[in-house]
Design goal:
This protein has about 120 residues and is α+β, with helices and mostly antiparallel strands. The protein has helices at about 5-20, 65-85, 95-105; strands spanning about 30-35, 40-45, 50-60. Helix content is about 40%, strand content about 15%. Strands 1-3-2 form a 3-stranded mixed β-sheet, with helices on one face. A hairpin with a 6-residue loop joins strand 2 and strand 3 (about 50-60). Helix 1 packs across helix 2 (about 65-85). The longest helix has 19 residues, at about 65-85. The chain is globular, with a radius of gyration of 13 Å.
Length: about 120
């Protein structure tokens, strides 16, 4: 599947409502990458309090399934949730707890890992 920024934006809205109670701010930018080393990335740029946020999801030459893409997007949304709630950008306790909450809410559809 080939990813578009429109797909990422619409999926973000859907998953924000389903798994984050619409509490996440819309990132300033969505990016589609082509890399194989990094399948996704949450970024902040600038100085506080004027930081801009971005979520990048790699299309990996169009070989990724929609489920793979959605998994990566939700993974990066957890990082945005951490940043928004001042938990830091890690794969530690807060990440794992939120990932588990999403696993339960999705009835096992999403099993978000600490790797992509």
């Amino acid at each position: 599947m080939f990813i578009t920024t429109s797909y990422l934006k619409e999926s973000f809205k859907k998953y924000n409502e389903l798994y984050f109670d619409n509490e996440l701010p819309m990132p300033d930018e969505f990016k589609v990458g082509r890399g194989v080393r990094r399948l996704g990335c949450f970024q902040t740029k600038g100085r506080f309090p004027f930081q801009k946020t971005a979520i990048m999801v790699s299309q990996y030459n169009g070989l990724r399934t929609q489920a793979d893409i959605d998994h990566t997007l939700i993974h990066e949304m957890i990082h945005l949730w951490q940043w928004n709630n001042h938990y830091g950008d890690t794969h530690g306790k807060s990440f794992k707890k939120k990932a588990w909450d999403i696993h339960i809410k999705s009835k096992g559809v999403f099993n978000i890992s600490t790797t992509h």
